[in-house]
Design a protein that fits this description.
Tetracycline Repressor, domain 2, 2 domains, transcription regulation
Amino acid sequence: MGLRELKKQQTRQNISHQATRLFLRHGFDRVTIADVAAAAQVAKMTVTNYFPRKEDLALDLHEVFVAMPARTVAERAPGESALAALRRGFRAAVREHDPVIGFSGEPFARMIVESPALTARLREFHEERERALAAVLAEETGAGPDDLPPRLAAAQLTGALRVLFEEAMRRTLAGDDHEAVAAALEEAGKAAFDLLEPALGDYAVRLR
């Protein structure tokens, strides 16, 4: 990474850090872009250049969140189905306490659920990842972009991930620590993927 790119990354991280600090202290809806800019010691335009939407200042894992299921399926091993790849990826994320699957801590989780703007934006993230996964499944199975099987499979697979994410949030808000959430998600994940196994266990198996 060159010096210019490093500087941009540091600026982005500082803006995100200062925004999160203010959101947790005052509530997302009470903090303005001007407040974030002042805390980060940058211009308002700099904030909006890095984060065009205020919601993305709080939910700054947008790209990773949306791409995760599609990337996991695209990188699956020979002989592995889309379902098996996502099961494996989810279990790894549970072990790592990955924020992408819902590990956040109670203050952050509460900030999200108490803001209609953030809950709406998070819903958009889930919809985007479903479309991204459907596109990869269509490519991997040789289907057309408007064919039903990839879209239906993506809806079921990302639907399971969405329920598991909501379960992580629910338990976090109930006061469970990361270890307790992980134990619950390990069990819930097994139940979710087992339920999908009869329909999708043999779907999109990588041949080579």
